[in-house]
Amino acid sequence: MIFMKAYFRGAFYSIKLAIISFLFSPLVTAAQSCPGNAYCVTNPLGDNTSFCGLIIKLLNAAMVIGAPIAVLLVVYAGFKFVAARGNTEALASARSNLIYTLIGIAIFFGASLIASVIIGTLQGLGVNGIQSC
């Protein structure tokens, strides 16, 4: 119990620090205009400084992190099948684990596909404000 309290306290402080850093980073970056100084902070988004560019970078990072986790979950479900060794209750648990894992993977990657299709359709229709995405 004590470990869990300390873990959640540390997670809370980390999230709070990330939010404060995110909110004050434009002020720090705007204050630094140093073309010849080697200590400038570069924009991690590159040339695309819009909010949409930030969302796209975050979604791409989620995909890069999520794909290996999805593979590990499928492998874990396979190990549960092997460890069941004919036990009907364990096989049912492994089967439901695999089904839920595959549904989660489909939702995770399908959401990106659906968002891409919607953005492409809106751009094709000429909706204003979608050009940066």
In which range does the helix fraction lie?
Answer: over 70%
Domain tally: 2
Report, as a whole number of angstroms, the end-to-end distance: 45 Å
Mean pLDDT: 75
Q: Pairing-aware structural class of the strands and helices?
A: mainly alpha
Uncertain residue segments: none
Number of helices: 3
Order of helices and strands: HHH
Please give the largest β-sheet: none
Q: Nearest-angstrom radius of gyration?
A: 22 Å
Measured by DSSP, the beta-strand proportion falls in under 5%
E-strand count = 0
Rough outline: flat
Short synopsis of the structure:
The chain is mainly alpha-helical.
Describe the 3D structure.
With 133 residues, the protein is mainly alpha-helical. It folds into two domains: 42 residues, no CATH class; 90 residues. Helix content is 77%, strand content 0%. The longest helix is centred in the C-terminal third of the chain and has 38 residues. The protein is flat, with a radius of gyration of 22 Å. The model has no long low-confidence stretch (mean pLDDT 75).
